Amino acid sequence: MRLGLLFLGLLLLGPILSEYGLKLVSEALILGLYAMAFNLLFHQAGLLSFGQAAFFGVGAYAMALLVSRAGWPFLATLPVAVLASALVAFIIGFLSIRLTRIYFTMLTLAFAQLLYAVAHKWYAFTGGDNGITDLRPAGILGESLPFYYLTLLLFALGVGFLAALERSPFGYALRGLRDNRARAEAVGVDGFRHLLLAFVLSGALSGVAGFLQGALQRSVFPDYLFWTRSAEAIISTILGGSGVFLGPAVGAAAFLFLRVLVQANTEYWPFFLGLLLLVMVLFFPRGLAGVWENLAGWVARGVRRGAAGG
Amino acid sequence: MALLAVENVYKSFQGFLALAGVSLEVAEGSFHALVGPNGAGKTTLFNVITGRFPPDRGSVIFQGKPITGWPTHRVARLGLAISFQRAQPFASMKVREAVTLARLGYAGATFHLLRPLGAFTEALDAAREALAKVGLEDQADRRVSELPLGDLKRLDVAMALVAKPKLLLLDEPLAGLSRAERRRMVGFIRELLRREGVTLLFTEHDTEAVLELADRITVLHQGRVLVEGNPEEIRHDVQVRAAFLGGTA
Ligand SMILES: Nc1ncnc2c1ncn2[C@@H]1O[C@H](COP(=O)(O)OP(=O)(O)OP(=O)(O)O)[C@@H](O)[C@H]1O
Ligand SMILES: [Mg+2]
User: Fold this and answer.
1) Which of A110, A221, B98, B181 sits at 20 to 30 Å (Cα–Cα) from A31?
2) pLDDT tens, position by position, A4-43
3) Is domain A2-309 classified as CATH 1.10.3470?
4) From atom 6 of ligand 1, which residue's Cα is the shortest distance away?
5) Residues 147-206, chain B: which have Cβ within 8 Å of A?
6) Which ipTM was obtained for this model?
7) Is B114 within 8 Å of A191 when comparing Cβ atoms?
8) Where in this chain does the record put each ABC transporter domain (chain B) (predicted)?
9) Which residues of B43-81 are buried (b: 16+ CB within 10 A; e: fewer)?
């Protein structure tokens, strides 16, 4: 219901946005989907993946390579981008999920950096740090408004899927594994297979985000696979709050708009970002979405008290 | 044939021998107590049976089938359910959700990605039934994190019962309960499980409760079986008084 309203609002927003506004909101939706995919692992399954850039980048490169080298139409590359990122997630997940905590996190980081190195050095295939450019989708999807609607559609499908997943037996099983893995396995939940599927789903959704981002930017570079991309998902999630369903998407929007704002005025964006994260972690551990919920709670209580007093 | 047979099981932790050749048979339909002082290896034996870690040597046979080294979730799905000594059910869920998830887990039915948990009516009914058995039906909508220890313990038992298990393992079901709660739990275990024909293997430090509930007792001490017998025999065994009863009886 609340999700439906959000999607409707974004739908109506389209025609009133400027060219620049469309691009910015599209990018926020893409980063939002990417951060939500990260949070499926982080919040529900209790896994801190520092290698999400691998799936984001593979989705982007699958699209870029097929469009530029094989002449595929942009949209036709979507299923391949999804499958490729899911497959890479399956392999990386299979090898890392058995490890515990910090080792899992380090291994996901290592695999992503490995893919980055490959994309960076393999000139003949990926173009190395020249990247793959000129990726404007043919036809109307090359225009900002239709592309915004495609982005919104995929965002809505992805977020709707994650919302359903959270309430499904699978979602509960992930939470059970996070809360108390030994207990979950003792009631018959196969920890490894559940976490692996969660990893693959998160990878596939990250791949969709990469696919869209490459088309939005009209180019794909090795930095799509670089660890700072993985960090963007984590930062968005901390900003927005991992414990609230839409928190990471809220955080992604806040992250982008703040970056635009700060970069327009100063050169100290990394400094501001660091300060902001510090404040969030220390004073608002539940993120912006948590702050919002608190405010809403106070207002509701205040109104009730006011009504009782009057 | 015994429902569960443990044969010559060894388990050591960093050189410390926690189980040193334990053998044990649990007859179908019996209430079998595993007693012994702190550190005797009771919980470790449960962990070996449920597959939490494999034994160094020896085997575990359930319904005539060797299950040694099986992963925990597969053992659970055979109908071998456990309630832990340290009850920490899923803290982020509501009571009803935790038990419903358990039901679906035993059935291997947690790979549904789109239907909400609330649509699995058979599992919800089973959860309600299991909660009623332990007297938690009116707490079904509470958050697990809000429950006092006694209720957590009963919830954890409900999460085992909801499997309709063939063999139920209870690791100190009375630990942390008040006197009244203990009486209630003992009464519940005796009547209900008897009626349903569940086989029970349990550990407990409460001597009175053990003698009241068990029809077979195995005494474990420093990873070895000291003696086994019916309550009458164990009560009069001098060795046991020293190790298990600590001379207080
Ligand atoms: N995972 C482990 N790692 C290292 N040592 C362990 C582990 N589990 C158990 N032990 C050791 O094995 C011995 C037996 O422990 P266990 O928990 O089985 O005893 P217990 O009979 O259940 O005792 P209690 O009555 O206190 O619950 C203890 O000395 C304990 O410290
Ligand atoms: Mg113990």
Assistant:
1) A110
2) 999 999 999 989 999 999 999 999 999 999 999 999 999 9
3) yes
4) B13
5) 156, 159, 163
6) 0.92
7) no
8) 4-247
9) bbbbbbbbbbeebeebbbbbbeeebbebbbbebbbbbbb
Helix spans in B80-177 (H): 95-106, 121-133, 149-161
A185 touching chain B per CB within 8 A: yes
Residue of A87, A220, A229, A204 whose CA lies nearest to A154: A204
Residue B194 pLDDT exceeds 80? no
Cβ count within 10 A of residue B20 = 15
Residue ranges per structural domain of chain A: 2-309
Protein residue closest via CA to atom 29 of ligand 1: B39
Pocket test for ligand 1, best of B14, B44, B221 (most atoms within 8 A of CB): B44
Tens digit of pLDDT for each residue in A270-296? 888 888 888 888 888 888 888 888 888
Count the Cβ atoms, other than its own, within 10 Å of residue B115.
13
**C-alpha A160 – ligand 1 centre gap (Å):** 46
**8 Å CB contact of B82 and A186:** yes
- Parts of chain B belonging to CATH 3.40.50.300: 1-79+166-249
pTM of the model: 0.92
The CB-side HSE value for A176 (13 A sphere, CA atoms) comes to 33
For ligand 1, say whether the CB of B42 is within 6 Å of any of its atoms. Answer: yes
In tens, the pLDDT along B24-43 reads 999 999 999 999 999 999 99
Burial-class residue A167 by CB neighbours within 10 Å (0-12, 13-18, 19+): middle
Region A199-227: what's the mean pLDDT?
96
Residue range A135-189, pLDDT digits in tens: 888 888 888 899 999 999 999 999 999 999 999 999 999 999 999 999 999 999 9
Nearest CA to ligand 1 atom 27: B38
Q: Closest Cα of chain A to B162: distance in Å?
A: 9
Q: How close is the nearest chain A Cα to the Cα of B235, in Å?
A: 33
Distance CA B131, CA B15 (A): 42
